[in-house]
UniProtKB/TrEMBL annotation:
The lineage of its organism: Bacteria, Pseudomonadati, Planctomycetota, Planctomycetia, Pirellulales. PROSITE patterns: RESPONSE_REGULATORY (PS50110). Signal peptide: none annotated. Residues 13-128 form the Response regulatory domain. The keyword Signal does not apply. The keyword Phosphoprotein applies. It holds the Pfam family Response_reg. SMART domains: REC. GO terms for biological process: phosphorelay signal transduction system. This is Two-component regulatory protein.
Length: 135
């Protein structure tokens, strides 16, 4: 096995599906390589599908601000694919005062915005750490 592959196995790979640059930067700051995280970003469902295939993430964070229908579709499509059934799927829900009803069975965790990025990072360490030994 090439050394790059061994390094990837020791790191938690996280795909962020979002368009909010502030959110993306906050999450990247809380999920640094020094803490055994490797982060990739996708801005749409199409990009998320491509990234999921090539990046092989352990966790996918989907910001529902990209659109509820697209976000739910991303989650459902991932769960339908046998290669992605073990991925930790986290939904970031907008706090716009509107109730959001949808099938949450494909999602492991939900966080309502605004949220503490540090708390999300700790939760990711716990969830992904169950599958991998993170430093």
């Amino acid at each position: 096995m090439p050394l790059g592959d061994l390094e990837d196995e020791a790191m938690a790979k996280c795909l962020i599906v979002a368009q909010d640059q502030v959110l993306i930067e906050n999450l990247k700051r809380e999920l640094p390589p020094e803490k055994s995280f490797k982060v990739a970003v996708a801005a749409s469902g199409f990009e998320a599908g491509i990234q999921a295939e090539s990046f092989n993430p352990d966790c996918i964070i989907v910001d529902f601000s990209i659109g509820k229908i697209e976000a739910v579709q991303i989650c459902q499509n991932l769960r339908k694919n046998i290669d992605f059934t073990d991925i930790v799927l986290i939904a970031l829900l907008p706090d716009d005062g509107q109730p959001m009803s949808f099938d949450r069975s494909s999602i492991n965790e939900t966080f309502k915005k605004p949220f503490d990025a540090h708390l999300l990072a700790e939760r990711l360490r716990t969830l992904v750490g169950a599958k991998k030994e993170l430093v």
